[in-house]
Amino acid sequence: MTTALHHNKVALISIWTLFFVTSCREAEKTSTEQTTAPVSTSNVIPEVPALHRLTAKQIDNSLSDLFQNEDLPLVSLPQEIPMAGFSNQAIMRDATPFLVESLQRSLSAAIEVAVDDGSWMTCHPAEGDDAVQCGKEIFTTFLPLAWRRPTTTTEVDWIHTAFSTWYTDVGFDAAMQLSLSVILQSPDFLYLTELGDPNTENNGVRQLSDWEIASRLSYLLWDTMPDDELFAAASSKQLRTPSQVQSQAMRMIRDQKSRPAIIEFHRQWLGASYATEVDPDYTAMSEVVLDSGEKEYFTYILSEGTLQEIIELDEYWGVIKREIMLAYEAEFTLFANHIIFGTGQLDQLLTSRTGFVSERTARFYGVSTEDMPSYNYVYPADAANAFYDNPEITMYQVQLPTEQRAGIFTQGAFLGGHSHPNQPSPVLRGVFLRERLLCLTSPAPPGDIPALGELTPGSWTTNRERFAQHTQDPNCAACHTAIDGVGFPFENYDAVGAWRDRDNGAPVDASGEIVYTDVDGPVSNAVDMLEILADSRQVHDCAVQQLYRYAMHRSPTSVETDTLTQLQDEFWADDGIIPNLFVRLVTSPAFLTIPAQNGGAQ
Amino acid sequence: MTHRKNPSNLQMNRRAFLSAMGLTTGSLFLPSLGHAQEAIPKRFLLFFTAQGCAPHRWICNPASKPMDSDWSMDWTSWAENDFSDSLKPLHPWAANCAAVGGMGLVSCANDGSGFHHERAKAHGPTGADAKWIGGMPYGGDLSVDQIIANHISRADRYRSIECSVDGGLAYDGQGGSALFRGPGQLLPTIDSPIDLWQRLFAPQTGSVDPLLLRQSSVLDMVAQRYTTRAQQLSVADRQKLMAHQDLIRDLEQRLVGTNTAQCASLPAEPSNTGNYETDFENHVQLLAAAFSCDLTRVASIQMGQLTPSQLGLPAGSMHDRYAHGIFYDIDAENAMAAYMAYHAQQLAYILQVLSAIPEGGGTLLDNTVVLWITELADSWHGMDNYPMVVAGGTNSGLKLGHYIHHAATTPFETPKHIASPYMGLPHNRMLVTACQAMGVPVDTVGRTSIDGWDGSTIDCTGALPSVLL
Questions:
Q1: Does the N-terminal or the C-terminal CB of chain B have fewer CB atoms within 10 Å?
Q2: CA distance linking residue A426 with residue A6, whole number of Å
Q3: pLDDT in tens for each of the 469 residues of chain B?
């Protein structure tokens, strides 16, 4: 692929939302995959079942949908334990005592509000309806929705019998709360339990049922339960062929509901939450971080302030830091939305000069916010809300300096989140970039002996020279050449992500080298490097692997290589359009089938 | 963990609960009404801190005893300056503590290389070979607190409570916690003391009491549903659902149990979170209250990394600037001595809080064993001279009031600042000691043995007679 071709494609692909786009790369291919054939089952036998439990966000969204109420209390569950970025990996999500207890408590709290509200109920004794009969009517409708599949008379009777007993004891609303508490703590709601369709068994593989596919689709693309249309498609067995699934998936991606769900994948993959790791030291950072009034105030207090004033100054500094973190959160999210729901292309994520800045971070980027379009960004309601004193911030869309910035890896969350308080860390930056963008793991430091003298004071001037001492030890050199080679190019960005030409008085050397990839070679700085990586097949292949892990809640197994390779070929041929990749993934055999032995007890 | 209903008063809630059960104060009898009717339970608190010591600034040896033999000294009569810099804050609590020197993370030294922090923190509380998931090492077996919880926890109360401060021992790419219910099964922590208060002392759901009374039948139905659904699934999926089912059954017992706990006084909800020191203090106070009410008998606090500014040092990376340098840079050595002293001061705070709560004829401290362990042995990434401290009171079952030294006699070589073919005793034995002090009849925690370089078998089992009463 030539660079010229690469840069000419923008106009064509920017209309991807209108139809499944045929891209430049795909046009070069002689044949394209056709999606009307029945699911091919020969290649894909996932060995590791990954029974998925809904995430807190997925539970919240599902409850909102079920009860048609946006104001239910959010569930409060123990923190997820991420694996290589993703916090939805089944292997790390076994139930714990704290989880089960938190679900009981949180669901009860949400149910209480939902029953008090009651607008989702089709009948109520307060309206003169017979209470027991009304309970039956509600469960007959509600149970299949909550469990996302047709339910049997036995199942409805099971809950209705309990309801009737409770009704006698405690009345309608309380009995309804208790019944809903049973329904929503059940595995049928909390887990994507999959049996597959035994009638489709072939070569040891079963197709998932239409209902199971509907749930997989909606929890990946919307982070919530299926809507009426998807349920209707499942009910009329219209989720059988890849082309049927494709048309639903495209409808779903065009729906606004897909935006937070698709952005969430990017947030976890590319580390949006590192925004909260930005922790600059004001003595080192004051030149860019503070405005002139603040600078004057800081200088005055630090030289002449009382102890109390210094303590207050420290608190004020905490407020400024939170503001920077929120600006970086907002920057990541607004930018990802702008790219993913604009051209949708991976290379744009890595090279676009469109920026989103606050009044303060504009200074770090050397841009003005005057007359620029602005957004009032509100951090979504969830656990991190408590972290921000004020979860709202005004952000401006700007053009960033072409020679200084290129995409998500020149933004604050990545740069500032992989820094120490007074200096950036080329090692943290290099390791993260290799892991997330190149799918290269960085081996642990060899042996058990830290390089003595690596930090001998006085033997270095710049941050780079200090870190370069790693590579002088031959034991460390092999890995650090690979890590630092892609970490040093970010030396133009200080610990808060601001541009710098000089470090500790000396000119910054941001040269580096890409190794162990398909685009190996020297680079002059981060922008240069990111332009090169944006055209790397390996980077595109890695993105596919990352989405696969996120969508399947597990790492790919060796027998899935063919599916993965096919998706990677298609993604590359497609100019790396990420929304298209979502569609291709959900129509791939891996997404639509399970091994027969996972299809349940025989 | 942010959505909070307006908390109502637990005392009110409990009273409402009891009257809803038809229990007036006259007829009130519940099996868990304080300790008058039953033996006072023992409690266990694990205090787990980051990095490790500068060994030459942790070891105490004011009498210049030979380091190549085992010895023990009553340190209750020592002057403050006889304590090492790292342990000096324990001076006022000397009678309630024992520092156990000459231990080694032998199991960790034996278990591969690289990933020092992650590997060591997987070994510290488990003594077991790491379980590797996604290229990272996690605890390969139950951690010591969970072994103890399995034996001493009440089914109708919290099995154990895991807390952290500032994210605890979570690292880039390896979040969460460093304590385990089983191989690779991490226990999530509660970082905010407000969330901890909510969990322990806020009323259940805020629902009307009739609902709380019927939660057992709700959970019974839920558990049935897990069993039914699990039977339809494949083996692996079935196991996952049945594990969830077991926890539902546990919760069924606990829901009523935790609401019948008796607390002399209820702690107030902490007013803020996010500050390292006050979060720690609030956690300690809430856990001590939970111990006192017998809401739980096992708890842990995992402390996040300290920053240089907390130690009054110039800004920079604690790890890069100071931790590695303990053997060749006096500033780094001082910094890491201060680092350990900071946590020793926190241990002293724990003891102070526990000793302020009367229980039986003494205090809560008398019936509690505290074990302080660190992530690495030394902050140079070394695995030998693993600093271990136990604390408690009259009923601890431990030889408190001593500094106890063990000579390095274990025939296992690990990189050390001053090279030696021997390491200290396998730290597993201190984990066993803690278990036995808690009345848990185990002789092994983690590995049972390791091959020595001399062809011998290094025994990792058995409590240390030098420490166990």
A1: C
A2: 30
A3: 333 222 222 333 333 333 333 333 332 233 333 444 468 999 999 999 999 999 999 999 999 999 999 999 999 999 999 999 999 999 999 999 999 999 999 999 999 877 888 899 999 999 999 998 877 899 999 999 999 999 999 999 999 999 999 989 876 556 668 999 999 999 999 999 999 998 998 754 344 467 777 888 999 999 999 999 999 888 888 999 999 999 999 999 888 788 778 777 788 899 988 889 999 999 999 999 999 999 999 999 999 999 888 898 876 667 767 887 888 888 889 999 999 999 999 999 999 999 999 999 999 999 999 999 999 999 888 999 999 999 999 999 999 999 999 999 999 999 888 889 999 999 999 999 999 999 999 999 999 999 999 999 999 999 999 999 9
Interface of B with A in 158-177 (CB under 8 A): 158-159, 162, 172-173, 175-177
Cβ–Cβ contact A559 with B under 8 A: no
Nearest CA of chain B to the CA of A193: how many Å? 8
Judged by CB atoms closer than 8 Å, whether chains meet at A193 and B233 is answered as yes
- What's the pTM value of the predicted model, to 2 decimals? 0.88
Cα separation, A470 vs A457, in Å, equals: 14
Regarding an ipTM greater than 0.95, the answer is no
Contact map slice: B 372-401 vs A, CB within 8 A: 380-383
Helix (H, G, I), strand (E, B) or coil at B62: coil
Q: Can you read off the two tokens belonging to residue A386?
A: 């408590």
Whole-number Å distance between alpha carbons of A214 and B176: 32
Q: Which positions ≥6 away from A87 have C-beta within 8 Å?
A: A55, A80, A81, A268
Interface of A with B in 474-493 (CB under 8 A): none
CA distance, residue B175 to nearest chain A CA (Å): 6
User: Quick one: which of B293, B329, B299, B292 has its CA closest to B313?
Assistant: B329
- Are B207 and B16 a contacting pair, CB within 8 Å? no
Question: Which chain A positions have a beta carbon within 8 Å of B114's beta carbon?
Answer: 443-447
Interface of A with B in 393-432 (CB under 8 A): 420-423, 425, 428, 432
Using alpha carbons only, how large is chain A's radius of gyration in Å? 27
C-beta atoms of B226 and A186 within 8 A: yes
Contact A112 B206 (CB under 8 A): yes
Contact state of B222 with A185 under an 8 Å Cβ cutoff: yes
In contact, A244 and A84? CB cutoff 8 Å: no
Phi-psi region of B381 (alpha: psi -120 to 50; beta: other; left: phi over 0): left
A363: amino acid identity, one letter:
R
Radius of gyration for chain B, computed over Cα atoms and rounded to the nearest angstrom: 23
Sheet strands (E) in A189-344: 205-207
DSSP state of B322: I
For residues A483 and A433, the answer to whether their CB atoms sit within 8 Å is no
Q: How many CA atoms lie within 13 A of B196 on its CB side?
A: 35
Q: Give the separation between CA A414 and CA A408, rounded to whole angstroms.
A: 7
Residues in a beta bridge with B449:
B459
String of DSSP letters for B288-329: HHHHHTTSBSEEEEEEPPP-GGGGT--SS-IIIIIGGGTTT-
Chain B residue closest to A77 (CA)? B1
Residue A539 to residue B438: CA distance in whole angstroms: 54
Structure tokens at A353: 């000069």
Cα(B347)–Cα(A575) distance, rounded to whole angstroms? Answer: 58
Q: How many CA atoms lie within 13 A of B135 on its CB side?
A: 13
Do the chains contact at B134 and A555, CB–CB below 8 Å?
Answer: yes
In eight-state DSSP terms, residue B406 is -
With beta carbons less than 8 A apart as the criterion, state whether A483 and A418 touch: no
Tell me the β-bridge partners of A595: A205
Residue that has been written with the tokens 């500014």 in this structure: B309
Q: List, as ranges, residues 242-261 from A with C-beta within 8 Å of B.
A: none
